[in-house]
Amino acid sequence: MKENIKIAILDMYDGYPNEGMRCIKMLLGEFLAKDGIKGNYDIFDIRGKEELPEIEDYDIYISTGGPGSPIVEGHRWEGRFFNFLDQIKNYNLVNSDKKYIFLICHSFQLAVQHFDLGTVCERRSTSFGVMPIHKVDEDLLFEPLEDPFWAVDSRDFQVIQPREEEFERIGAKILALEKERPHIPLERAIMAIRFSDEIFGVQFHPEADAEGMRRYFLQEDKKLAVIKEHGEEKYNEMIEHLDDPDKIMFTESVIIPRFLETAYQSYQKDLSPAY
């Protein structure tokens, strides 16, 4: 049984102001405050400082969303991040104490490209707001959620055209797709993939907390920016969804907390891994 759980946040924000890091820190703080759980987390600036943890030094990793294009351009930090993903995968093949990683948005898009599971391309228009996500396969992390469930979506890019042979080869599964759009003849984006028992990724933002997001978007400058970019109707709809306990409040309370709990349980000698 592990005495202390060590968690690393892989910061993909490149120094840009964001709400995601606050939300992730809050979820980790709540997890580490539970009775019987001891541990800590550290933050590594992947893009700005090219920092990466040693694979042996941490048990659980959360890799964040981030700004800008996720399409691989050959930066050194990209190669180092891809090597890190391979290290996790290879470590888990030969060790019983697995390393777990949760990939959010930008990190998810990078991983899809690295494992050659689909095409990452720019959307015709930005997807922004509190959106329905449709489950297409069952998974422990999504189990309590309705179909569809709701989550914060904020992206100019998308993952489409899954390469089924690569999914089969590495044992990955598509778990969720974006909202149905019967009036639009475009492929629906992939919103969640289980890359392996220990590697999980989503295209949306399960870390987003309703109270903090509401406070953020009620600021006059943020409100005006959203209305200018997306219209007043979209802004009002988003604020209404933030107040609904069955939408992102519930999603935030389920996905990442279940990921953390499942990873933690796998380190307890008297319990079998949860997957």
Topology:
Layout: E1 5-11, H1 20-32, E2 39-45, E3 60-63, H2 76-94, E4 100-104, H3 106-114, E5 119-135, E6 149-160, H4 164-170, E7 173-177, E8 190-194, E9 199-202, H5 210-217, H6 220-230, H7 232-242, H8 248-266
Parallel strand pairs: 1-2, 1-3, 3-4, 4-9
Antiparallel strand pairs: 5-6, 5-7, 7-8, 8-9
Strand order of the largest sheet: 2-1-3-4-9-8-7-5-6
Question: DSSP strand (E) fraction?
Answer: 15-25%
Number of helices: 8
What percentage of residues falls in helices of 4 or more residues? 25-40%
Runs with pLDDT <50, length 5+? Answer: 270-275
Distance between the termini: 18 Å
Q: What does the main sheet amount to?
A: 9 strands, mixed
| String of helices and strands | EHEEHEHEEHEEEHHHH
Gross morphology is globular
Mean pLDDT: 91
Report the radius of gyration as a whole number of Å. Answer: 18 Å
Number of strands: 9
Q: How does the helix and strand content classify structurally?
A: alpha/beta
Describe the model:
The chain has 275 residues and is of the alpha/beta class. The protein has 8 helices and 9 strands. The protein has a 9-stranded mixed β-sheet with strand order 2-1-3-4-9-8-7-5-6, sandwiched between helices. Strand 8 (190-194) and strand 9 form a beta hairpin. Helix 6 packs across helix 7. The radius of gyration is 18 Å and the shape is globular. Residues 270-275 have low confidence and may be disordered.
